[in-house]
Amino acid sequence: QVHVVESGGGLVQAGGSLTLSCAASGSTFRTRDMGWYRQAPGKPREMVASITRTSSASYAGSVKGRFIISRDNVENTVYLQMNRLKPEDTAVYSCNVEFDRYGGGWDDYWGQGIQVTVSS
Description:
Distance between the termini: 40 Å
Helix content: under 10%
Order of helices and strands: EEEEEEEEEEE
Number of strands: 11
Number of helices: 0
Radius of gyration: 14 Å
């Protein structure tokens, strides 16, 4: 059974930094894309950043230049370094991990989500 566990959230003042971690375990297959999403109260979930297995990254426009996504393929872990945080970054952040599937294709799994609160 695959487990995806996020850590590193919390409360931070505007302008500060936080680093989120997401560790995936329980699969014998390789990871593919890994990504971070967030959902603020009353808003739809949005993609924050994603990274391919070869570390090609993409970012939402609202975080580009402030957030950095990285990964460790040996540990099946993805990180999100969040700098110059703003109150509007406040949300529940969730990790999504894709694993190869036997015979082709992939399966994706979500973590339980972690709260990030940025105070003004």
